[in-house]
Design goal:
By secondary structure, the chain is α/β, with parallel strands linked by helices. The protein folds into three domains: about 10-65 and about 385-415, no CATH class; about 80-180 and about 350-380, D-Maltodextrin-Binding Protein, domain 2; about 185-340, no CATH class. Helices cover about 35% and strands about 15% of the residues. It is built from 14 helices and 14 strands. The protein has helices at about 5-30, 45-60, 100-105, 115-125, 145-150, 165, 215-225, 250-265, 280-285, 305-310, 320-330, 360-375, 385-390, 400-410; strands spanning about 80-85, 85, 90-95, 115, 135-140, 155-160, 170-175, 180, 185, 205-210, 295-300, 315-320, 340, 345-355. The strands form three sheets. Strands 1, 5, 6, 7, 8 and 14 form a six-stranded mixed β-sheet that branches. Strands 11-10-12-9-13 form a five-stranded mixed β-sheet, with helices on both faces. α4 packs across α12 (about 360-375), α4 runs antiparallel to α13 and α10 (about 305-310) packs across α11. The longest helix is centred in the first third of the chain and has 22 residues, at about 5-30. The radius of gyration is 24 Å and the shape is globular.
């Protein structure tokens, strides 16, 4: 191959290497970190290692705090902070609400929430002038952007990916990127009983959280890149997301696949046809048998709901940002899973605000928050991003890809 033709393969290899490096971080959530400092490509200490060394030399108490702000304030105007409770290690609820608390409603307690993005937001709030109280409001992934656009919240503190579609709304602004992740998926490990043979007539093949980039874009990218283990090649294009097609809508090949699925289910002791009805009878015009498949892709309202369905064997693949999928399944315990060894997208998280809403006072506060956030981030080794990583990734070594990303974001203090 000529020298002029070589850059394309090198770029492809570089992208694969970058994605694999990023995934190393997700694996660190479920396993002890390897000893030794992270190193940059040129052999110099990485950002996290350098920050740790500097803080150790400075002694206890060095570094910025993570003030929580005045979560119970009612002064007007005041910042309304939207926060998710189901996306560890970035934004999660530390304490479940009691039935009486759920019934009472009202603002959330900021101390009940933790995570990388939450800690970054708390550092920004702590740097705002006195008299800028904050009210914390728990939101869902599906509703968060609507709440922000309608100015029912002013700031969104959760792992939200920067996308052109979100930024197309004239009311919204976003911070610089604060984290680099990627969409991947977890699957059930192989089992001796061959239970995976009777998908998709058992349950949804793919589970996603509604309102996230893992939904349609993420599923499409994975399907185009390699497909899903228990999905016949090309079947995704024949299905509509969130809906199970009728028998008459399926091609003969997919009808045959469902018959095979139903036979396997019966042999495994989990029949999908009524007793005495052979699956093949339904194909040949015999007694009715519910052979229509489940929806190929099913959306859930939260990661908690999706993880519960995955661990109950109701979903075969769990698609989402790899750190969230790894952490939430690992924390549940007793739920075997395996993570694919690479990611399929690049998800740059940012903090969105409503900077141009009809309430000018609220919008000014949101812009002031962005300024405070930029100051908290641009502190070199004392950046809020470094603090948040240390606090939420359990001593894991930073991956080379994420280390380069962080160095490109956190300006040297004093610049």
């Amino acid at each position: 191959m000529s020298a002029a033709a070589s850059p394309r393969p090198r770029a492809s290899r570089a992208r694969r290497a970058a994605r694999l490096a990023l995934f190393t971080l997700a694996l660190a959530l479920a396993a002890p970190a390897a000893p030794g400092p992270a190193r940059a490509a040129d052999g110099a200490p990485g950002l996290l290692s350098a920050a740790r060394a500097e803080r150790a030399a400075a002694g206890p108490g060095a570094g910025a705090g993570t003030g929580a702000g005045a979560g119970d304030a009612r002064a007007a105007p005041h910042l309304r902070i939207g926060v998710r409770g189901d996306a560890p290690p970035f934004s999660y609820r530390r304490r479940a609400l009691s039935a009486s608390e759920k019934a009472a409603g009202g603002p959330a307690d900021p101390d009940d929430f933790g995570g990388y993005v939450v800690d970054v937001c708390k550092q920004a709030l702590a740097r705002m002038p006195a008299g800028a109280p904050a009210e914390w409001i728990e939101v869902s992934a599906a509703a968060r952007m609507d709440l922000l656009r309608d100015q029912r919240i002013d700031v969104l503190c959760d792992p939200s990916t920067l996308t052109a579609r979100r930024l197309s709304h004239p009311e919204l602004m976003a911070s610089q990127p604060i984290y680099l992740s990627g969409v991947g998926f977890a699957s059930h490990p192989p089992r001796e009983d061959g239970w995976n043979r009777f998908w998709p007539c058992r349950g949804a093949v793919i589970g996603v959280v509604d309102g996230t980039t893992a939904d349609r874009p993420g599923v499409r990218v994975i399907h185009e890149a390699q497909g899903f283990e228990v999905t016949p090649q090309g079947i995704l294009g024949d299905y509509r997301l969130q809906r199970a097609p009728g028998w008459e809508e399926l091609s003969p090949r997919h009808q045959a696949r469902l018959v095979e699925c139903a036979v396997a289910a019966r042999e495994a002791g989990e029949p999908v046809c009524p007793e005495g009805v052979e699956p093949v009878d339904a194909v040949l015009g015999g007694p009715t048998c519910p052979l229509a498949p489940k929806p190929l892709v099913q959306a859930f309202e939260s990661h908690d709901a999706l993880a519960a369905a995955f661990c109950a064997d109701e979903v075969y693949h769990y698609v989402g940002d790899v750190e969230i999928v790894s952490r939430i399944l690992f924390d549940r315990g007793g739920c075997p899973f395996q993570i694919q060894p690479h990611t399929f997208t690049e998800e740059r998280y940012a903090i969105y605000v409503n900077a141009f809403g009809p309430d000018a006072a609220q919008s000014r506060l949101a812009v002031a928050f962005l300024r405070s956030l930029a100051i908290a981030i641009h502190r070199g080794r004392r950046s809020a991003l470094v603090d948040a990583f240390e606090a939420n990734f359990q001593g894991a070594e930073i991956s080379p890809t994420l280390d380069v990303f962080m160095w490109s974001v956190v300006a040297k203090e004093g610049n």
